[in-house]
Amino acid sequence: MRRLVPVLGRSLLALLATMAAAPLHAAAPIRPPVVEYTIEVSLDPAAKTLDGKERLVWRNPSNDRVGELRFHLYLNGFKNTQSTFIRESGGQLRYDRMARKEDAWGWIDVLSMKTGGQDLRPGARFIQPDGNNPEDETVLAVPLPSSVPPRGEITLEIAFRAKLPRVFARTGFVRDYFLVGQWYPKIGVYEPGGMRGRAEGGWNCHAFHANSEFYADFGDFDVSFEVPSNFVVGATGKRIAETRKGNRTAYRYVQKDVHDFAWTADPRFLVTEFSFDPARDVPAGWSAKAAEELGMTETEIALKPISVRLLLQPGHEAARPRYIRSTKESISYYGLWYGAYPYETLTIVDPPDDGTGSEGMEYPTFFTGGLSAAWMTRWPFSEVRGVEVVTIHEFGHQYWYGMVGSNEFEESWLDEGLNDDSEHRTLTMAYGPRDEVRLPGGFGADSISIAHAEYTHLDNLDPIRKCAWCFFSGASYGINSYYKVGLFMAQLKNDLGARSFSRAQRAYFQIWSFRHPSTSDFFDVFEKATGRDLSEYRRNIVEGTSRLDWKVVTARSRRTREPEGVFDRAGGRVTVDEKETKGKDRPETWETTVVFGNVGDWAHGAQARLVFENGVVVNRTLPAEARWVRYRIPSYKSKLAYAVVDPDRKNVWEWSYLNNSKVLGTGKGAANTYGKRAVVKYTGWMAWLSGVWSQLLWALA
Amino acid sequence: MTEQRRAPLAAGFAALSHQKLVLLLAATTALIGWTAAMPALPTLQEWVGGTLAGDAFVRNHPTQAPGLFFDLVQQKWPAFDGMRRTAGWMGAIGIVLQMFFAGGIVAVLGRGRFGFGQFLEPARRNFWHNVKCFLVFAPVTFLLVGIWVAATLAGGHKLFAEAPPDAPVRTLVWWICGVGAVVLFAVLSLLYDFARAARRYAGIGAWRGYRFARHALSGVGLRALGLWFFWAILGGAAVAAAFALVWVLPATSPAGILVMFILQLGVLWLRSAVRVAAWGSYLDFLDGRARHAIAATARIRYTVAAPAPSSL
């Protein structure tokens, strides 16, 4: 039996390798789609209201008979202080606070909902699928007079009226700026049994929480909206008609294979239209690098042209070239590594300085940028890449959320986190080290270091995978859904190798685009594509809170000494003491001992390095299962200069970098020299800053 | 006979000849700074000098320095917090010292060669006067400048809430708020300095010192403000330029670190020099007006003689 284990192990590896070599077929959008929306809506800019008619075709994707429909009415999250959204957020979210003004509230009323001439509205009721707040009105359950049969369909005619909130979280208005998101009755997702690990089919339609975004089925949208003619507009999809009616204009946009629709209107928008031309706009070398990592030809990963529309705020003109450049870089990176952007259009909205609550929000083929205020784009902040970070991140959501439609309520890491990782890599490719922040004088930070600082500054109480409103705080949601995933994916990439990792990630995108994957689906694809068992990553990092923290416990070098004491030798018993050994003409040697330890709780290997004063470098591998490893070199001609674990930062999941090294500090060597200089220099700096501070106080005295 | 006088600005520059005084202020600042920095030294020795962090910081390693910096600040924050708190207390001590020095400065500037004996005695004598002046100045300034800033911002917000962020009127509100606050501070600061300077001319108390300052500024307030802004802008620009130079200095070699220290001390010296020069200007400005201002603040008591007994 024991002999069988390695045989079985090798067979399993061979099987996985075969699967990895097999082509992973890209998914096509589901046809006919689950949902088809045709909406006509009119904006009253004075009252901040929308009056709309919605025709919805919903196709039952399951083999169940569905007797009830469920709708998201997200705008009711802004209706009063009793909604789950306001209770959880406390009226403050995403660095913005809800205004205490009469017009700040938002709501949506379903006036009628008809099928076959019968109005279903009287029988509809608000439900609270997440349990704890009977006053929440963000999910409407609508019983049907007759069930929708398996694979059958139903058509609904819905009339609604909505009031937009003053912007503080994603959607709403400020003055004449309107960012219209989550604005129409949107049907939830009916998940058939077996989908995302479900035992039985059922609705997945959560209440609107402070720390959660969205989840919806893919479908086709045909939306017409009417606004005063002086407004400049933008929307999901492609504009196919523009009809003037007196002093108002109706715009019609259509888009297939998306799961949401957003639009914007503002008379002050400055319009910049540009195209993404792959031949011209892919940065040099990126296509070849992607092809090499993916094991494909450049022709196979070729991109398509895209029409881009940038709606910029007056006063933000300095951000224009930065939006354009970073948009092209993100289209290039995501397209080359994961798959070409499949839509014809992309709209970027630049929110005003008093509407920052709508910054950094993603919708299909449409997103809002941010951090573009004039002062943020001027010296000394001109190389703080806020515009680029937001643009790349929100464009990235076209992939991780837009096309790979994971459930943002229940597994936010699959969109925010994977996207954070992709954003880091795009930034590094485009801007090199210190990709996020560069200040005059050489100060700056890169995205991984920032993610590491975020990871370690908060109590590590939650795992990455958790429902979005179940984290112990908003900060924990953010750090687990974004930063920790960025670190986890970077660790995975280092462990699997760039080629293997990139191929797996492309496979995951290709297989799950226009579908709804879960955490299990993610690991299934990665394990098949790489031929590796990744369960330890899932258990420790994604579903656990394990830390990895290798450190240098002790490091010392001592001069070796002649043996001393009482010895029985040929001529009899002799006593050798210090007086006799001292001054012997013998080359000086050193005994070196270094102990490395993993004080974290994730058993994972690391590289160790011992560097001697004569320049000799000794590299060793610390095994994953070891809690500590001692290296002892009894006699060597040079003293140890320093010892370091993970010198090349392969373990991105490390909890502390600071304890990764010890410099002996008594001998020669650059590390010691520079270390001492650093102490003098930075003590001087702090003394000086304290002095300057006291002199500033003197101005008051 | 009319006394031949220099312009106040020239007198300010002439005051820079009191190098011992400038060095005393600079050295005091340096001492305060180094004392404040001491709580962080053991942490720096162990975690910057004793690890590769120091090497990464000094050589500004492109990928490792930021992470190590964040770790150092987060994990060893108590040491830096200790430094911050010490800096706060040392700043308070600095304020007291400055009040002490001001008493000597007003007595010795423009009156021949500087000597510590001449400086320390009036510094001691005027100390309580300066403390009392400060206890008037600090809360009044905090209150008035605070009210001004709050009122202009709240008013601007209420009046122009619906104006777009790039509307000129929003910028105008910020400018009115900022410039108004600085002018207000300048006026109060001049009153405070002049009230302290009153002891150069007479042994008067704090309230009378402020009355003296008000009379001394009467009719020539704009000229005095001009002096204040000249020294504030000159000092601010010089310090900012020196600060920028120190900020961008790589300082990786011992020579580089030495140059950095010299520049840093230079910044402290510059700020002290500007303060002495400003005092030189103010005192020269006051010298011509002091007699009148002192007289104007005098309480004149009229004593009516009792009627003589009738000889009838």
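Chain A touches chain B through 67 residues (CB under 8 Å).
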